[in-house]
Amino acid sequence: MAKLFGNLNLVMIVGLVLSIVVMLAFAPYAPVDVNSVFRWLHVFFGILWIGLLYYLNFVQVPLMPSIPAEQKGAVTGHIAPKVLFYFRYAALLTVITGVVIAWANNYLVEALTFSGAGAIALIGVGMWMALIMAFNVWFIIWPAQKKILGIVEASAEEKAAAAPRALIASRTNTLLSIPMIYCMVSANLG
User: Fold this and answer.
1) What is the pLDDT of residues 6-19, one digit of tens each?
2) Cα 82 to the chain's mean position, in Å?
3) How many CB atoms lie within 10 A of CB 54?
4) CA–CA separation, 156 and 92 (whole Å)
5) How many CB atoms within 10 Å of residue 18?
6) Quick check: 186 and 123 in contact, CB under 8 A?
7) Is a pLDDT exceeding 80 seen at residue 54?
8) What is the dihedral of CA 86, 108, 189, 16, to 10 degrees?
9) Over the chain, what HEC string results?
10) Is pTM, for the whole model, over 0.85?
11) How many C-beta neighbours within 10 Å does residue 81 have?
12) Within 10 Å of residue 161's Cβ, how many Cβ atoms?
């Protein structure tokens, strides 16, 4: 057991295999199709994305000032770059899988243009919030964090200017995540 749980890649593979077994076992009751697979992936990547967003905002960022200077390098040099890698790609894959779901169910254009009513308009609001959040991740937070973490060369002034930009974009995403989650779970579109 220690060998299994000590290896994250192996845990993920076993989790994937178990998911496929469950899908096949319950296929008569919950058909396995593009829609169901992409919904499952959308929820998985969304949990990863928002979970890391909340980790950054509720744990890492607030605790950084209290971490002794000699220990900050462990966070900025090792933990933060890995967190931001999964954060970026979870955002991207959440958006892609959401777009596939909307496209496969023929409401993508109606949702994005708010030309649909009721649940389609609600999901459109959630989609736009997610798109704004993904934009913030890739085009504001990540470029700023590359400077802050020393992944790209930046002067002390550039690093100092990048920090509030990253924080504002990250807190904007935290703010938007709350109504976005409501939109996504309340629309109930097939």
Assistant:
1) 999 999 999 999 99
2) 14
3) 13
4) 30
5) 10
6) no
7) yes
8) -30
9) CHHHHCCHHHHHHHHHHHHHHHHHHCCCCCCCCHHHHHHHHHHHHHHHHHHHHHHHHHHHHHHHHHCCHHHHHHHHHHHHHHHHHHHHHHHHHHHHHHHHHHHHCCCHHHHHHCCCCCHHHHHHHHHHHHHHHHHHHHHHHHHHHHHHCCCCCCCHHHHHHHHHHHHHHHHHHHHHHHHHHHHHHHCCCC
10) yes
11) 15
12) 13
CA gap 167, 165 in Å, rounded: 5
CB contact at 8 A, 163 and 148 = yes
Place of tokens 């909307």: 102
Lookup: tokens for 71: 């220990």
- Residues in the chain, total: 190
Q: Where are the domains of the chain?
A: 1-32, 33-186
Two structure tokens written together for 182: 């409501």
